[in-house]
Specification:
By secondary structure, this protein is of the alpha/beta class. The chain folds into 2 domains: 234 residues, no CATH class; 99 residues, abc type-2 transporter like fold, CATH 3.40.1710. Helix content is 66%, strand content 6%. It is built from 13 helices and 4 strands. It has a 4-stranded mixed sheet, with helices on both faces. β3 and β4 form a beta hairpin. α2 packs antiparallel against α6, α2 packs parallel to α8 and α6 packs antiparallel against α10.
Length: 356
Amino acid sequence: MIGLGALVRTQTRVFLRDRITLFFTMLFPIVFVLIFGFVWGGAEGPGARARLGLVRLDGVDDVLAEVLAVQRAVVVIPYGDRAALERDLAKREVDLGLLWDGRSLVFLQDPTRVQEGYAFAELARGIAAEVDLRQQGLAPPARAERENIGRTVAVGWFNLLVPGIMAFSTLTAGLFAVSGRITQMKERRLLDRLLVTPMSPGALLMAIAAVRLGAGFLATVTTLVAAVLLFGVRFEVNWPLFSAFVVAATLGAMGLGTVIALLVRRPGSASNVANIASQIMLLLSGIYFPIEIMPSFLRAVSRALPLTYMVEAMRYVTGVAEMPVARFALVTGALFAVGAGLFPVLGRYVVSAGRR
């Protein structure tokens, strides 16, 4: 036990001195949260509404006023003329412009706002359709009401993005523990020197796993806290399930790192392969954009990636998405089984001299 404690302390110091690994494990997720938080965090939320600049060309506002009065998605800002409206539209003081002469609607939209353009266009279509119905003396046959499901109010994509980044952080913490740290030690023959000491390979692996588990847990918690404090997003974290999942996910990622280390001929190339694999999974696992909008063949690829299921489970334990309990147990159990099952294989890899 004393020897294991010494190994843990040594691996902790090694981890803290490796600035690149430290940055990508601890700080990179927070950088992601800051970037996407400033892009999306302020634009989403229950009180987020589009700013609609309105110019009434002839003062007639009866039908339009009735329509805008029931619109919950817009804040109306009156303008005296079109030139002032276009100026503020270009400066993004307003999101959408509307000219109304009592008979026709003319919407003005900034074409450079690519990300929000579709939402603004849909908003304009909705207003135009309702004005058209009211002018005919009709009413919409049905009204759509937004109702969130889940144990907390998932108010926007940023709420789903943060757990995705946390899942990716857990993946990298485990993946690079093997494909980065252990393969480097093997290539530099540090393992050969260690193995002639009374230290057992199992103790070394346990020490590395313990350090990476601690780093992964700390990285996910700090990412979550940063998102809550800086952008006011809410989560309902089930801490027992969260802790169990982070342990299983980190071990499962170490198992994936073991597979990469065994498949790559040169140990030094394992980290490059792991980096490529993690970046592909980052793009295709539904972290940045929904899987549902992908082409069918990419959806099939996404379903084959472990990070996809890690993201789903992380969203479940942070309370922003529902997931059947049996499915969560299956994902967590599978990750734990992969890590625990490949641990003996990793032990043999550490002591084997065949791959250098």
